[in-house]
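Action item from last week, closing it out:
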Amino acid sequence: MSIDYGKARRLLASRDPVLRGLMRRYGPCGLADAQHADPFRALVHAIISQQLSTRASATIEARFAALFGGAPTPAAVAATSDAQLRAVGISSQKLGYLRDLCRHVEDASLPLAALDAMPDDEVIEALTRVKGIGRWTAEMFLMFRLHRPDVLPVNDLGIVKAVQRAYRLRTAPSASRLRRLAEAWRPYRSVACWYLWASLDSVPLKE
């Protein structure tokens, strides 16, 4: 699914002067540069990187990928022993998450090849069945991997902080207030969120 970023920018600029200012400052939307990575590897990254610094995550992911010649697959990961996975830095908890991810892929309860054709809500439902993958991770997958144009992660702390700062609110906006504010951004709420993250220099999932 592709996004017409020119159309998105024009619509957002016409409806929201705050976003218009952010677009002038930060230029083209960086969502256009996000790659359609292999979905399994994207989910592995999401699991491994939890609660780790970028450097630590990158080190463990490189060791993990090396186990599989640079191309881990669900079947190959499932066939690898716990000891081998722990040896590259995978914690016991994350090992359990990876096992659960592989089970869901292999029994087709998480149909990776079909995700691109599924509605946003169905993608979120399918992904969050996997242990260790919550709604925020599923929303980031929609935005950065499937390039869905109209995702609003109301529980993202960066979005909350950016909206409070950009719109000069006295207090952090609630989820319901964010949804009301973002009605003007439909059907390009993903694009609006990218600019809000950019205003904090904290766009998620930079790899």
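Closing note: The first helix runs from residue 5 to 15.
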